[in-house]
Amino acid sequence: MSIEVIGITVLWIFLYGYLIVASIDFGAGFFSYYALITGRSNMIHTIIERYLSPVWEVTNVFLVFFMIGMVGFFPDTAYYLGTTLLIPGSIAIVLIAIRGSYYAFSTYGSKENRFYKLLYGGSGLLIPASLSIVLTISEGGFIEERGNDVVLLYGKLFTSTYAWSVVILALVSVLYISAAFLTYYAHKAKDMRAMEVLRGFAIGWSGPTIIASLLVFFAIQRHNPMHFENMLQLAWMFILSLTCFLIATYLIWNRKRLGLAFVMVMLQFALAFFGYGAAHLPYIIYPMVSIHESITSPAMGIALIGAFIAGLCLLIPSLILLMRLFLFDANYVQGLQKK
Amino acid sequence: MAYDPVVYSRILTGLTLGFHIIFATIGVGVPLMIAIAEYLGIKRKDPHYTLLARRWARGFVITVAVGVVTGTSIGLQLNLLWPSFMQIAGQAIALPLFMETFAFFFEAIFLGIYLYTWDRWKNPWIHFTISIPIIIGSTLSAFFITIVNAFMNTPQGFKLDGRTIVEIDPLIAMFNPATPTKTAHVISSAYMTSAFVLATIAALAILAGKNHIYYKKALKLTMVCGLIFSLSTAFIGDLSGKFLAEYQPEKLAAAEWHFETTTQASLVVGGYLDKDHNLHYGLKLPFALSILAHGDPNAEVIGLNDIPADERPPLYIHYFFDIMVAIGSSMIALCIGYLYLNRKKRLSKGKEVPRFVLRLISFSGPLAMLAIECGWIFAEAGRQPWILRGYMKTVHGATTATNVDWMLLMFSLLYIVLGFGVWNVLRRMFRMNTPEEELAMRGANGGEAK
Predict the structure, then answer these.
(1) Is the pLDDT of residue A42 over 70?
(2) I want to staple B188 with a disulfide (CB 3.0 to 4.6 A). Which of A154, B233, B407, B411 is the partner?
(3) Out of A49-58, A92-101, A256-265, B82-91, which region has the weakest mean confidence (pLDDT)?
(4) Is the model's pTM score more than 0.80?
(5) Which residues span the membrane (chain B) (predicted)?
(6) Structural contact between residues B316 and B391, judged by C-beta atoms closer than 8 angstroms
(7) Which of B86, B118, B133 sits opposite A78 (nearest CB)?
(8) Domain coordinates of chain A in residue numbers?
């Protein structure tokens, strides 16, 4: 594999990692607020907090990682995306900032502040929507070079079926992934009441997720036929993805093997996400930036990949330690430990 | 003011960094202080130090949260506000930026573990061990991010071919001439400032009439650390002066209003310049600048007149330099004074450390933070007009997008809200739950001081 293919693969893995952990996090925030206003807070609140507390910081890092890696490997993306995304990017930053800090404020500072919870839960839904704009733009047709300037065509963006279908997919899949994970987590904690509530959410959001996925398929066919053709070449990935979805739903419906069910959900998104990404190649931003013209210095490319591997050698054991201590430690999950 | 994306981009970047630096400094220094307190607690079997570590850690989480989100802001803003700069320099700084994120990742994981495992193991040393990766992670992330900044000051290890940067040698770019002094100064001053921030808290508690021995232990510990770190910061600061003289003479000359290249150059303290560059009310210390620059009173120091007019940094950086140095030196004096009085107090019973000393200490944290901000403004404004010294001017790196002014407004509001939120939450957190109550609850009441 060439350096740029390795580079984009690694970056895509990180983006996928962000997609999963951030979805759990964003969805949990929303459910937590939703439960508060519908008076079911005490049923699922502890489960959500017990999971989120030790991991909330880690989520942001995935995103920053992806961003920096992107610029490192493909600096032209910084120019095109940086210039055009000033407004949506800044809004996303503000939302992320509010969400992160108010999570900490409400969890470690003052207990049960409804307003903090609203900020936290609400921003969690807006962030995926604003971030998904990047994926939309990368399909091409929304940015234009005018002399020395690059501009985002807002009018076109807001009236595009494709853009809206991506936003919808981002929203519903966040809720679906999160609910599937929390169902499993509640089951592990032997908190059956919470499990039932969350299972309801998971089932409820499974339908919209699959409908939204289909919507994106149709929209992409109209918006970027070439990309759609490429996706058809990789049809097996999308079919497998659908199979994983069906298995996951079956398991959650029957309250069986919820851990496996969540793995299926992860696979479902992995297959669809990597299929989408692979079909997008060689373009990063269609048709302006492809992966081939970007890396200008092989020494740096190799150093970056080296740093990646070294970093992963450090991170993976630490992440396993984190999970063993908090996710897979029966005593902690069930709240038997002193805080 | 007419809309100029460069000006607004500079203000916005400055604002974000200026806000982030407060939390980043605490984020680098406080973990070390927490670990020292926990270590003393276990080693001396003294529950006061352990409680100190716990309470600091609890407050620390809140500041970390803001540090994380503002750090994410600046990470993304670099691309949004300086796309042309990132397109060119992005690859060269990618490696240290990457490693910074790794270090931060590492820290984030272990911080999560640390905070939730206080009573998990019978052997307290296991929990203490977890603080070590946090310190390593936070210090390394300061190290790597400062390398990025060092690279912008003394770029090397690449060739510029039109708008593309080629033939990058990652290690030569990372270990550029500015790297050693910059990283050491940033890390040391972060430790120093954190020690003083915590000293401020202890001093305020004692001033408010709390006389539990807990506060006195806290004050003494933080002041001892403060002395060590401020001495090392001053020492590294001197090395930084020598670095500037060699690699960025224009920054040093602008800071000292040194126009003519001369030997036996004098250092200017305070004062102001009129239009014709005549110094008023300033104090000139003969030979001092030559000593600062080259360690030799007779050494020649390059003056601003030898620098092309369009490459001279603004002259106002002199004030920032002076404030930084003045605060740094008075901190050392304050620490020595306090420790001397504290010793005298211990030798003769009944004598307390005078209240005015405590009052001075209560200003040390904010002042040290001010010194950090001033030092940083001095370093950054001092390399104007360059964004990549010698390669790219700031005006060519900025975004061309419209609406940067609105973004500036939005972020200003955000920082006001966050700043207010932190202040509010921290205050409430510590008011509601005093150390005395906590000690009583843990069944470890070390007794009143009197």
Answers:
(1) no
(2) B233
(3) A49-58
(4) yes
(5) 20-40, 60-82, 88-116, 128-152, 184-207, 219-237, 316-341, 356-379, 406-426
(6) no
(7) B86
(8) 3-333
